[in-house]
Amino acid sequence: MSSVLWGVIAGAIFGTVAVGLMLPMPFPDKHAALLAAFLDRFAIGLVIGCVQLRWPGWVVGLFFGVLLSLPSAVITKAYAPILIIGGLGGLVIGGLIHGWR
Predict the structure, then answer these.
(1) SS3 state of residue 2
(2) Which position among 10, 70, 80, 95 has the lowest Cβ density within 10 Å, counted as fewest Cβ atoms?
(3) Percent of the chain whose pLDDT exceeds 90
């Protein structure tokens, strides 16, 4: 299976987990918040699957996980949870798709 397809699958799983974590939280517009969280985390998986760098896979994942989480963290001012979850998810996805070397 191609790394792009793995990225789509990993992004869908990561997005679903992120939405699951957010379900008990109150939001003024819950539907928009959950959709944005899913799309944000899905994009992390997709980008990691599409990128071909000479870095170790976990570094690629960590970098893009944090980078793509920054806009949401800045807008919500919830830096720690958003960046930590994005970084950890990206690290795992990058390691699984591109290797841990």
Answers:
(1) coil
(2) 80
(3) 96
